[in-house]
Amino acid sequence: MAVEQKRRDFIGLSFGAVAAVGGVFMLAGMKKSWDPLPSVKAAGFTTVDLSPMQEGVLHQVEWRKKPIFIIKKSADMKANDSRDVIIDGARYMLSIGLCTHLGCIPSWRPSQKQFVCACHGGVFDESGVNLFGPPPRPLDIPPFRIDGTKLVLGETGPEYDKLVNQAKA
């Protein structure tokens, strides 16, 4: 009877060990499937070199399939301390180029220093603040981090946190 009991205990322990190892591999596989692919992580960040930008000219890039507007402000453009990004002493307007009313892409009119949304007549100033029409709020600012004279879209840095905190105040 003792030999039979030892055999049953051994088979039970063996089955338990195999089940535990299988469970660990299953959990590892599940975690790996939850993590984003490296290609998806890389697509989440866009780096923009601001050094060649000219004052008053709209520079448009794409980040996560959205247009991003960047303007290096000239001296005759209105400063907005709660929205301007300051890099190397220069002020930049940075925003997601989608109207906050229905998501249309506004066009930049340099002579008027305004963004105008043709869909419903929304108007934004050179800082992206809504001036007229149905847009309920200013143009959104994408998460960013400053790396020297480069802007890294998709990461949050202290400058972005500062702008978000100023907007909440």
From TrEMBL:
GO terms for cellular component: membrane. Keywords: 2Fe-2S, Disulfide bond, Iron, Iron-sulfur, Membrane, Metal-binding, Transmembrane, Transmembrane helix. Residues 99-153 form the Rieske domain. The keyword Metal-binding applies. Its cofactor is [2Fe-2S] cluster. The keyword Metal-binding applies. Pfam families: Rieske. The chain crosses the membrane at residues 12-30. InterPro entries: Rieske_2Fe-2S, Rieske_2Fe-2S_sf, Rieske_Fe-S_prot, Rieske_Fe-S_prot_C. GO terms for molecular function: 2 iron, 2 sulfur cluster binding; metal ion binding. This is Ubiquinol cytochrome c oxidoreductase PetABC, [2Fe-2S] subunit.
